Amino acid sequence: MPRGFTTTERDRITRTLLAAGRELFTRQGLRKTALEELVAPAGIVKSTFYQFFDSKEALYLRLMLDEAGEVKAQVIDRALLSTDDVREALLRFLHTTLDVLENNPLWRRLVTHPEEMAAVAARLDPERLAAMGDTNPSTALLEYVRQRQERGDVVGADPAVAVGALQAVLLIPLNTRYLADPATYRTTFDLVADIVATGLTTRRGDPT
């Protein structure tokens, strides 16, 4: 029979597994992380792991959902939605997202390795994956842009195109090695962010 755990023990083990997953997935990714590495810090055997998570992918998803909720609060709730000035809102979104990419290694890993999310999607049922919808920063950004386009505050009619332009700015810190001088990437980022945010919001009222 599986060993029983007290509530305190379960909480401790869960926290330890999440901490181990965060460190290992960030450093070496989902595929290269062995179950033995995840359970060792918690002092449990591999078979006991499944009393806490169905799979490595389920642990990865839990971390991703936790990260997505906090990142959404940072880049959407406290940045994008913090002002009615659309250009300023887009700039705040871009600069705050840059801060997240620089200071949150797990989120940076999630952004730069979409194949890991695909591996999660392949192993988990759609209902569990749908749980990310409410906390997904990309979904919230798309909805914001759609609403602003309908109001005439953002140019264009396809929100995916405007969001794509914003996402293109965010590729700069992920590809600094391709810049003429990588040391200038923050200045480059600021310039491109301003150009894109201004370009998306300064043609209101132009003839179509």
UniProtKB/TrEMBL annotation:
Gene3D superfamilies, per database record: Homeodomain-like (1.10.10.60), Tetracycline Repressor, domain 2 (1.10.357.10)
Sorted UniProt keywords: DNA-binding, Transcription, Transcription regulation
Ranges where the HTH tetR-type domain occurs: 11-71
Coiled-coil region list: none
Highest taxon, organism lineage: Bacteria
Pfam families linked: TetR_N
PROSITE patterns hit by this protein: HTH_TETR_2
Residues annotated to bind DNA: 34-53
Protein name: TetR/AcrR family transcriptional regulator
